[in-house]
Backbone:
């Protein structure tokens, strides 16, 4: 049996380098996931409410330096419409994700969160809007946001510097994650698999970083190149390595909420089903209005399945049922160890 829990860094690196143990990792991860979360899949309705961004992350299609990106932002009314549609379909978590858009200051974003909370008191609100001050995180928390997704992207400072311009610092990101935890958010972090310059050692560092942080949610997905970024010619992340990492994370974090991400579904047609087999337990279908989806283009060929549409969600449900899973109507809070 592969005791990943007791592996040294070197051993972990060796495990990441080979497909030899994938079947065993998959079986263990799947058994753990079944034991704790049964055959349930939690869904989160993703609302991509702005693609304006002041950052210039080299890998991302909505970076400010991409002059070809057609920019948009949703109004409060449009965001609430997305929630309403989603709620009727059974979503009990809304994820508001966007670029770092100064337009959504606290004065603008706080009332939006409050309004969603008021209209849908039994739904959880997750924010994913990047780095903000502790005071801002605090205000948004008090307004009703309970969860926050902020990937660390890479735990290695040198690697971080190769993926971001100089003014973006790993230390700032870590400070933000610490602040979010202190305030009491349910926190999600994570990284891309196969981002340019990433080494297996970096991935071990990422795993160790997460073991220190203890996030309740961990989002990983393959890097996928975007034609209007400087990484346009870089190869995409590897499917099997992503699945291997998912399984390892499930074993190391039995209770974690692990999404089979859109990027995984973009890399392979059955990517999200495969993700479930390797320990994932969350799906994040898109609730954004159909006409703006193509504009929230973090990477090329992003899937745009119209999951906000009742029929499409029923199709996704059908696909998952066929694979032995059940999508549930539930906030999908993390189960914490007693
Ligand atoms: N601006 C917010 C959230 C938007 S991006 C933030 O910075 O947190 C959400 C995630 O998409 C990022 O954390 C990144 O890991 C991922 N992402 C960005 N570009 C990508 C690409 N080219 N391929 C795969 N994932 C990407």
Residues:
């Amino acid at each position: 049996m592969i005791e990943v829990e007791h592996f040294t860094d070197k051993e972990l690196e060796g495990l990441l380098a080979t497909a030899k143990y994938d079947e065993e990792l998959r079986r263990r991860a799947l058994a753990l996931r079944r034991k704790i979360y049964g055959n349930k899949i939690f869904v989160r309705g993703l609302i991509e409410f702005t693609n304006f961004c002041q950052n210039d992350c080299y890998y991302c299609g909505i970076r400010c330096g991409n002059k070809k990106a057609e920019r948009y932002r949703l109004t409060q009314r449009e965001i609430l419409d997305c929630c309403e549609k989603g709620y009727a379909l059974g979503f009990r978590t809304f994820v508001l994700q966007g670029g770092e858009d100064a337009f959504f200051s606290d004065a603008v974003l706080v009332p939006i969160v409050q309004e969603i909370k008021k209209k849908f008191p039994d739904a959880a609100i997750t924010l994913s809007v990047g780095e903000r001050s502790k005071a801002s995180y605090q205000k948004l928390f008090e307004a009703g946001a309970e969860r926050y997704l902020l990937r660390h992207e890479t735990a290695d400072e040198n690697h971080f510097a190769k993926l971001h311009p100089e003014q973006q610092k790993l230390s700032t990101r870590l400070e933000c994650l610490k602040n979010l935890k202190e305030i009491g958010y349910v926190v999600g972090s994570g990284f891309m698999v196969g981002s340019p310059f990433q080494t297996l050692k970096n991935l071990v560092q990422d795993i160790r970083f997460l073991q220190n942080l203890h996030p309740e949610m961990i989002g990983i997905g393959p890097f996928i190149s975007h034609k209007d970024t400087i990484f346009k010619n870089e190869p995409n992340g590897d499917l099997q390595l992503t699945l291997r990492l998912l399984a390892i994370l499930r074993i190391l974090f039995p209770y974690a909420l692990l999404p089979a991400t859109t990027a995984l579904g973009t890399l392979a047609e059955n990517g999200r089903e495969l993700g479930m087999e390797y320990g994932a337990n969350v799906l994040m279908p898109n609730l954004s209005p159909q006409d703006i989806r193509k504009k929230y283009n973090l990477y090329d060929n992003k899937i745009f399945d119209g999951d906000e549409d009742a029929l499409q969600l029923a199709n996704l449900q059908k696909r998952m049922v066929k694979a032995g899973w059940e999508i549930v109507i539930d906030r999908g809070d993390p189960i914490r160890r007693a």
